[in-house]
Design goal:
The modification N6-(pyridoxal phosphate)lysine is found at residue 219. GO terms for molecular function: histidinol-phosphate transaminase activity; pyridoxal phosphate binding. The protein has twelve helices and twelve strands. By secondary structure, the protein is an alpha/beta fold. The chain has two domains: 17-41 and 266-351, Aspartate Aminotransferase, domain 1; 45-262, 3-Layer(aba) Sandwich (Aspartate Aminotransferase, domain 2), CATH 3.40.640. It is globular and about 55 Å long.
């Protein structure tokens, strides 16, 4: 008899990555399906990475020491409050493994980041999905009502992936105060650098014994191919995440690239501002066409398409644009990454043919 795979693993749905860019008329091809940064590496990053590659015969620093020091200085937190992993999603997996198991519940908004159901199921815990509000943002009151004696973790994604809205800071602070202290609240801030709303949640100001913030270098910093993310948390929680992490998880070149990217934040902020301008232009242009687009505080926009989602996705593909369709009801739609200016203009020209 062959080995028996745990039922929680055997039934895990596969994570669906963004598809590669198609080839449209005249060879036009833009990948807008993975929320990647369209800019090349920040100044100094390639040189730091190359120097690190020259030491590839050595193991990476398992403690991520240089990166920990740089992040502690940037965020003005203790080094013991940080845990590094291969992307914020890996940090989330390790955090949930440390906190939840059979018989527990993890509450999170839906629709939100599609890795959440997978991460929860791998622990053996049960997902409790709470529908978003009419604005495609979180319904904090509904999240609070979903809490039961079995709840161990609540996820809050701000800005929310894939719909874009932020969570109000004061409302989130009140929500945290209202949730029992033994429940862990994880604030997923993967896209935090793109937020401009004055009332946007500031997760690092809310860190406490039962509150953690997830951050990543994949989006604003443009290191999606290197997989570096981290959490800021209470030292006990951060220590548990480190204990659950695979040894030597973050490669030597990835660590070097992250440190060099932090040193180039002036250029980073300039690029982020350009992407924000493009995002707002794209969202406004889609609304002027009569399409429903919620306020996005990220590097993507959400096009509420309903039962037209699959057809519209095919039309974008035919134009050389790979967007991300989410076809399952009741909140089907398209997530469109903000890309190069010429890609964004093509999105608007193509969208004009949808209406």
């Amino acid at each position: 008899m062959p080995p028996q795979i745990r039922s929680a693993i055997a039934s895990v749905p596969p994570y669906r990555p963004g598809k590669p860019a198609p080839s449209g008329p005249g060879g036009v091809s833009f990948k807008l399906s993975s929320n990647e940064n369209p800019y090349p590496p920040l100044p100094g990053v390639l040189a730091a990475t190359q120097a690190a590659c020259e030491r590839m015969n050595r193991y990476p620093d398992m403690a991520n020491s240089e990166l920990i020091v740089a992040l502690a200085d940037k965020h003005q937190v203790g080094e013991d409050q940080l845990a590094i992993g291969t992307g914020s999603v890996a940090v989330l997996y390790n955090l949930l493994q440390a906190l939840a198991g059979e018989g527990d519940e993890v509450v999170y908004p839906w629709r939100s980041f599609e890795a959440y159901p997978i991460a929860v199921q791998l622990t053996g815990a049960r997902s409790v999905q709470v529908p978003n509000g009419p604005d495609a943002g979180h319904d904090l009151e509904a999240l609070r009502r979903a809490v039961t004696p079995a709840t161990k973790v609540i996820m809050v994604c701000t800005p929310n992936n894939p719909t874009g809205p932020i969570v109000d800071h004061d409302r989130l602070a009140a929500f945290i105060d209202d949730v029992p202290d033994h429940i862990m609240i994880v604030i997923d801030e993967a896209y935090v650098e793109f937020g401009t709303a004055p009332n946007r949640a500031r997760g690092l100001e809310l860190i406490g014994p039962n509150v953690a913030s997830l951050r990543t270098f994949s989006k604003a910093y443009g290191l999606a191919g290197f997989r570096v993310g981290y959490c800021v948390a209470d030292p006990a929680i951060a220590g548990a995440v480190r204990a659950a992490s695979a040894p030597f998880g973050v490669s030597l070149p990835a660590q070097a690239a992250a440190v060099a990217s932090l040193a180039a934040e002036d250029e980073l902020l300039h690029r982020v501002q350009e992407l924000i301008k493009e995002r707002d232009t794209l969202a406004d242009g889609l609304r002027q066409l009569g399409l429903t687009v919620p306020d996005s505080q990220s590097n993507f926009v959400w096009l509420a398409a309903g039962d037209r989602t699959a057809d519209w996705a095919q039309q974008f593909t035919a134009a050389g644009l790979m967007v991300r369709p989410f076809v399952d009801a009741p909140d089907a739609g398209l997530r469109i990454t903000v890309g190069e200016p010429e890609a964004n203009r093509l999105v608007l020209r193509t969208a004009a043919e949808l209406v």
